[in-house]
Amino acid sequence: MPRPEAFFLHGVAVSVMTYGFISLRRLPMDGLIRVQKGGHFQFLTIQGLAVAWLTMVLSLGCDALPSFAVLRTAKRASLMIALPLAFVISTVYWSLLLFFPSLILLPGLSDPSSSAVPEMIWIPFNIDFPLHLAPVITLLADFFFFEKKYTKKQVQIGAPLVVLVCGTGYACWVEYCASYNNTFPYPFLTENPFNIRVGIYTFVSFLAWGCFRLMNALHP
Fold this sequence. Notes:
With 220 residues, this protein is mostly helical. The chain is 71% helix and 0% strand.
């Protein structure tokens, strides 16, 4: 029998994150982003949202079919990717938004004849929440209340490999997209040269690994 509280959490999470993705069409920069190489999937936020959404869909499958071992294994593997990714995305996004918003928010379109600095485009909270808070909140709740902690071998071998593959993959992907778009999805990447960007990719990857180790250590 599926646990009703787990089923409720997973169902709400899928609904909220689906709403967030669908609502991207309502953002002022949606049209410009869609015609760029990579579209919205240039953004680590959207990739993290997709993995978090998949994890919650797999969780619903596990709730409905608790004895299906393959589904459980797939959910655990997806959670290992989604949890540290969502934590890093949320931490970096909200920290920059509060203290250095110009490094994370896209500038609006400006009049070429004007010398005024274009205003930053702020995301409405009803869209910001599903994109930058709901994934980490629901994944943490799922991990601490409904999942067992990862084994020592999984933390020491599996997690670093996942971080290496995902970190390197995103770095290559975003650099590839920027070579066509002549800009990066995040201003803090656009404003820095290649060697600094490599440092940012490396730092964020180590942060993700460290966050995963910490969360697993805190799991009772």
